[in-house]
Amino acid sequence: MRRRVALLGLALTLLAPTARAAEPVDMLLVLAADVSRSVTEPKFKLQREGAAAAITHPDVVRAMTSGPHRKIAVCFIEWATAGMQNIVIDWTVIGDGVSARSFGDRLVEAPRSFAGSTSISGAIDFSVS
Predict the structure, then answer these.
(1) Separation of alpha carbons 49 and 64, rounded Å
(2) 66 in helix, strand or coil?
(3) In the list 8, 52, 68, 95, which could disulfide-bond 104, CB 3.0-4.6 Å?
(4) Measured CA distances, 12 to 40, 45, 82, 85, 124 (Å)
(5) Are the C-beta atoms of 129 and 16 separated by less than 8 Å?
(6) What is the CA radius of gyration of the chain?
(7) H-state helical runs in 31-86
(8) What are the tens digits of pLDDT across the range 6-36?
(9) What is the pLDDT of residues 58-100, one digit of tens each?
(10) Cα separations (Å) of 40 from 2, 7, 46, 102?
């Protein structure tokens, strides 16, 4: 769990400075989840449902809509070993509870990308680009 939290933090802080949203947003957020073989199906389900619940929580929605543009852009990727990264949900603008719920619903419904070994550096490199 600590490894996943650390990866999320790194993904947030290492976003390429050249990244731009198609419309003005307050933040570009990459949510990156480990789906390597060590992540069992129950843990995978918990991870997905937890991310969906977090992004739709009223306090989180309030935070996402509290900046000058009142919206952020989010994407969700899954990763395992080197070369095994997948964009599960491409860049999506979240500016209210409805768009947050839509993102969360799509996340819960999407199939698992794969299961392989683990390469955190590959996930970070992919997230940055």
Answers:
(1) 19
(2) coil
(3) 52
(4) 25, 23, 20, 17, 10
(5) yes
(6) 14
(7) 41-56, 58-64
(8) 444 544 444 444 455 578 999 999 999 999 9
(9) 999 999 999 999 999 999 999 888 888 899 999 999 999 999 9
(10) 16, 19, 10, 26
